[in-house]
Automatic annotation (TrEMBL):
Keywords: Hydrolase, Protein phosphatase. The keyword Transmembrane helix does not apply. This is protein-tyrosine-phosphatase. Residues 38-69 are annotated as: Disordered. Residues 2-150 form the Phosphotyrosine protein phosphatase I domain. The active site is at C8 (nucleophile), R14, D126 (proton donor).
Amino acid sequence: MEHVLFVCLGNICRSPMAEAMFKQMVADRHLTDQIQVESRATSTEEEGNPPHPGAQKTMRSHGLDPSGMVSQPITAADFDWADVIITMDQSNLRNLNRLAPTRADQEKVHLALETVPGFAGQEIPDPWYSHRFEDTYQSLNAALPGWLDRVTQADQ
Ligand code: 4NP
């Protein structure tokens, strides 16, 4: 079993969208018994809150169901659970490096766009201010197939 964890600042915009999209991709490839997917926040700011209305609307417009999702701050147990931690921007990377209990946990952390040729080091910006949730979806849609390929190769 591979465990994939998506993380952003609030766990109400980017990482829940990534979780829902990646779960759908895993289901489409009939891999639900091999890959588990979760998402978490680096902050406690939005703890217990559902995805942002704009994120919910964008998820629904692409056939994804945001119901039941709530923001959860990352814990030491989450770092331990995860095989790979996929995050959105440089600020998220710094926060995760600070929060990671061990060096091995730090090494699990990657920027989502790392899988897109020419986009290493690039960020998926926070749509909380811009409200460009469809841009977030399209960036994730470019990055996530590469992550599914990597995870399925790791699982062999
Ligand atoms: P997210 O967006 O990190 O993509 O979930 C944000 C959500 C909440 C806040 C910032 C970004 N906030 O400051 O509470």
